[in-house]
Amino acid sequence: MKFISIVISSALATTILAYPGTGKWKKTLAEIKRRGLAPISSPEDSNELLGDLLTSGPTSSVGKLVADVLLGKADAITNDIITAAPAPLGSDACKQDTCWTIFQMQQQCTRAAHGGADGSILLTDELGRADNRGLEEIAALTKQMYAKYQPYGISMADFIQMGATVATVVCPLGPRIRSFVGRKDNPTAAIENLLPDVNADADSLIKLFEDKTIRANGLVALVGAHTTSQQRYFDTQRAQDPQDSTPGVWDVAMYPQTLDSNAPKRVLKLPSDVKISAHPRTAAEWKAFADPKTGQDHWNDDYAKEYVRLSLLGVNNINALTECSKVLPAAITDFQPPDKSNVDIWANGGYQNLGSKFGELMAGASLTTNETLPKLGVDPMQAWSGFGRLPSGPPSGPPSGPPSGPPGGFPGQGPQGPSSFPSGPPSFPNGPPSFPNGRPTPSKAEAPAPANKGGRPQGGEGQNRGNQRQGRPFLK
Asked: Is 116 assigned to a binding site?
């Protein structure tokens, strides 16, 4: 959260070098409008310095920038972007710019991204701990990718952190978070039992994060990353069920749906999120992020600030870091998913005969339109199996037929679909359709599931193409 006086002062200093009508001027005006909507600073906002900034103060331009971000005096989101083509790895040009190597990193947004501040999770035996369960796949992939770039000087800690900020911005609506490199790897495992418990009460979680300089509002902002998550081990009978109905989009749907007793059936609310949403110190901020008009920009601003803080915990050479935000892909500020109708059906309880298979497709960033599903071994007619009922593990039996009329969406996006069918799920009058070649073929009398319309926004870096939808960072 920022003071409006700071916004205006910094904006005026910038506009001296810009003229009306130029791209820079328009960008500045947009920035003034966005930041001017931010609420006045609250006692629940994080405002402490970290590492060497706390002991010796800012002694470099990067140190001053980081200090201003941590104190809410500078924006944690940046639009500065590199336009030149990257130099080849190992070339003189690459060696002269610390950020060139990082620009070469593969930039995709799927479940293959996660956090960490000193690289120890992949440099020690931390990965084997129970609270890191589920990271084995991404750990193996990260180590494989890191082996390619390690000879060019990047630390494991920086590799993980840049991967996380890249993954955030290539998710639709995700912010371009200021990103810094120069961390030193730690060969010693972190102390155990310091990670948040999904069943913990809100007071315990608030204290845990305050001990890390993250105050109550910062905690509310950070848990918003659950908007892109799909749990696997909290409830194994509902593996891959999401924490909101749009796990492929960096939106604020998680906040209102956590509060909504009639949220889409497949949304699995984590107990810790529910408790935080209702706590006296965090409830107001939770509702502010849930606001359909101002919540997205408010959350992106606060999340970016808190993530910069989180990414620098335990870093004691902040003054010596280099900012590499310029290599991040451009933000995707508008997105109309072409597979929205099928994702809505899934979120409201459809595709239950597939067990967690449809969720696996979502987690892998697969595009799930009626045209692409058959290529992935899924028949669109299976959408209606169990529609409107609470998921309860992999069901059995043939898929049911479609109900009359298309389903509704989820709260805030069209009418609510049926919560149940009075006489059980509808079926085909003459039994289930035949399955030639292992895939159902609907007859002319049987209306297929509603077709997906709309397209993916064109242009901009970081957009997946082909059979991939925009994915999500796995930040849990």
From this structure: yes
